[in-house]
Amino acid sequence: MDTGDRLLTPGEVAALFRVDPKTVTRWAAAGRISSIRTPGGHRRFRESEVRALLEGEAELSAQPMPADEFNGYR
pTM (2 decimals)? Predict the structure, then answer.
C-alpha cells in the first residue's frame, strides 16, 4: 500500500503540525498548501505533500498572510 496517495483530513494535518484544524483550512484557502475537495465539499490533503512539508523538503508558500486575515478579521 502506497501511503503517499493517502488523503488526510484537516484534523489529521492539524495534529501533525500541532495547530488548530481551522489554521490548516486557512492555509489551504490562502493557497499555502494544496488540497483536494471531496464531492461533499470537504478538504483533503495528500499525505506525501504533508510529510514533505513536515520534513522540510518543501515549504508552505512564502507569501505572508495579511495580519487581519491571520487573526480572522476582515
Answer: 0.71
